[in-house]
Amino acid sequence: MKTRTICFANNKGGSGKSTTCSNIGYFLAESGKKVLLVDGDMQMNLTLSLFPEEEALAFAAGENLYTAVRQQKDVRSCIRPSAYPGLDLVPSSTLMSGIEYDLFTKWQREYILKKCLQPVKEAGDYDYILIDAPPTLGGWVMNILAASDFLIIPVEASPWGLFGLSNMFEFLSEVKPIAPDLQVAGIAVTKVDGRKNYFKQTLETLQELPARVFETHIHLDSSIEWSQDNSKPVGKYKPSARSSKEYRLLAEEVEKICR
Hints:
By secondary structure, the chain is of the alpha/beta class. It contains twelve helices and seven strands.
């Protein structure tokens, strides 16, 4: 199987990008796939979803995605195995806050991440590479999109969850010449409270957008916060949780679509 690269991006914070990325990665790995998670956000939430803070900060001080991109080198020296079979991570660093400045003067700067990941893809060691993007639109997110085969857009089912989503699609149209083969795999609806009327309104609005909406929705669940506090995917922290079952189903949807 050819390695598929999927990025999780939305220019609005709090949409559940890191949580969705880590849990889909966990369930893909549990199903027997080899998965590499790539933390592209200075907040390091994806790194912290698998490793306790002390270890995450140690990664940030050593080799990580920021050092690889800055030096334009193969990311394989930055890969860290997680506690879960088949699931590895390229950690982030708080220094990623300066990545836009570092990229500015580079030649073919839109393709630097793609070049850093190319040796991993060519080696064929992973079935999937999942990249967590920061909640911005700019040169670095352009890099992430250019390095990806598919895009998943997590959207919070709240009155403000759709805010700025049109900007995301405008940005995608601008990126099209740089990433002509990028496909929008779908919109993943997160933080759903089915008791609220705006959930139905959110779905109706999303159906009008030029993208698939995944059938599986992720409901609000305190188990997600507790799993984050324990630096574990919710599927490992509490397999019986509603959100765990939903992320498993969402991972199965993603696997069918991103072939």
